Amino acid sequence: MLRNYAIGIDIGTTSTKVVLFDENGAAVAHHSKNYPLLSEEPGAAEQKPDEIYEAVNESLRETVRKSGDLAERIGFISFSTAMHSLIAVDSEGKPLTNSITWADIRSEPYVAAYKSDYGETAVELYKRTGVPLHPMTPLFKLQWLKNERPDIFQKAEKFVGIKDYILFRWFNEWQTDHASAAATGLWNMHTKTWDKEALKLAGISPGKLPILQSTTYYWGELSDVLAKKSGLASSVKVVIGATDGPLSNLGVGAISPGDVAVTIGTSGAIRTTSPTPILDTEGRTFCYPLTENHWVSGGPVNNGGIAFQWIHDTLQKEDDSAAYEKLSKDAEQIQPGAEGLIFLPYLTGERAPLWDAQAKASFIGLTLRHNHNHMVRAVLEGSILNLFSVYSLIKSQVGKREVKIFATGGFTNSPLWKQILADIFQTKVSIPEHTESSCLGAVLLGRYAIGETKILEEAPVETKHYQEIMPNPDYENVYKDLFQLYQSLSDTMQTQYKALHDFQNKHKKESGE
C-alpha cells in the first residue's frame, strides 16, 4: 500500500494542532487541544510540559481516528514548534520547571546588564547566533534561572525545549533540531555547534543540552507502545522538523528569494527566505535555519491582533465577530493616514524592531477632528507600519527581485486590514486558502527529509490557491510620507520609554496596586 499521507504536528503557544495531509498538501483530518499560559508572578509566562505532552498525544490519536481507513496510508509524522521555550529536567528526564515560554520576560534585567556591560561583544554574539538580545531567548532565561532559582539550576541534568521534551518522552533520546537550537541564542550558525561564548555566559556545558540534529533528521519507526496509543503502524517515521516561523514560510509558499511572509494573529511576524544567513548590522532581526540551504530572516512583533482587540474592548462592549466587523467597516470611512493620527502599537512592549520590553503605545496627532473611527484606522495602520519598519531592515535581501507577499493569520478576516497591508507595502498580497501553514510546512519539510521531494521549492502543494489583494497606487505617496513620520516619531519616543516605565511602576506602588 502506498503510504503517501502524512501528519504535521504544530506545538503552539496556546494549543497543539495536528493535521493529516494527502499527497498534494490538502488537509483531510485535524484535531487541536488548548492549554493555559500561566503567569504566577510578574513577567512570568509558563506552561506545564506534561499538559502539552498529553495534548500532542490526544490530538494525534484523534486525528488518526478521524482519518479512518486513511490511517493505513500514513507514512510519517513531522514536527513544528513554537520557539524559545526552556525546561530544566532531572537525570530521569522529569521536569524541574514548567516550560518557560518566549513570552516570559523575567530575564529582562540580565539582558539590559549584558547590553550595558559588553557593548561590541554583544554585537558579536548576535553575529554568531542570529538571535537579537531579548528576554525571550533561553540564553538569558538560563542566566535568570542560575541567579534566581539556583537550587533548580544546580539540580538540572539538561535544559531543553518543549519539542525536545515531547520527543524524549517518545524515544528516550535528547535530540534537538538546528532551527530550535538557533532560537535558544546558544547555537553558532557558522559552525552549526553550540556556541562556546554563549554557553559560558549561560553558565552551562554542551552536555547540559540535547544532541544537535539537522531539521531533516528522522526516526525510522515508532515504538510499539506509541503505535498502539496513536493507532498508527510502527513503521511510521518521525521527522524532527523545525520551528513554526520558518515552517510557516514553507507552508504558505514563501520559500524563494523575494518571497515575504506576513503573519498577524495576536502578535505578528514578517519573514523572508535566502540561501545563506543574512544579518542586520544592529542586531534588530533574527536569522534561523530551515535547512542548510534555506535561512529565514525577519522579526517578530508583540502587537498584532492584540491591538485591534484592545481598541475593540475600549470602544465596543459587544464581544462578538460582528462588533469587530462594524469597527472595521466604520474605519473604512476614514481616508488613509487617518488625517494625521498615528498609533505606535507597543501595548505590550515590543520585540522587532525596537527589542524594548519597556516600550509603550501612544496616539500622536489627536485633534478635535478625530473620532473613534480615526482611532481604529490608526490602530490598524500602526500595526502594519510597524511590520513595514521590520521589512525595511530585511528588504536588502530581496534586492531587485519582484516582491511577493503571502499573508496569514486572523487579521485576514478584516477586508480593511488586508487592504492596508497591500497599500502600505504597495505590493500584491496573496492569502492562501489553508490556515495551518506551520503544520503543512512541517509535512513539506518531512517529504524532503525522507526523500519523497528532491527540491524543497518543488514540494507538491494542491493548496497553492490564493485570494489576491491588489494595492491602490493612489495611496502610495500618502503611506510613504506616513511611514517616514511614523519612523521619526518612533525613534523620538524610544528615548522616553524607560522614564515612562519607571513612572508607571513608581506610582502604581504608591497607589497600592
UniProtKB/TrEMBL annotation:
Q: Name one Pfam family in it.
A: FGGY_C
This protein's UniProt keywords: Kinase, Transferase
Domain Carbohydrate kinase FGGY N-terminal residues, every copy: 5-251
According to UniProt, the name of this protein is Gluconokinase
Q: Which family does it belong to?
A: Belongs to the FGGY kinase family.
User: InterPro entries from the xrefs?
Assistant: ATPase_NBD (IPR043129), Carb_kinase_FGGY (IPR000577), Carb_kinase_FGGY_CS (IPR018483), FGGY_C (IPR018485), FGGY_Carb_Kinase (IPR050406), FGGY_N (IPR018484)
Do the record's keywords include Kinase?
yes
Domain of life the protein comes from: Bacteria
Q: Which organism is it from?
A: Fictibacillus nanhaiensis
Q: Any idea where the Carbohydrate kinase FGGY C-terminal domain is?
A: 261-449
Q: What is the lineage of its organism?
A: Bacteria, Bacillati, Bacillota, Bacilli, Bacillales
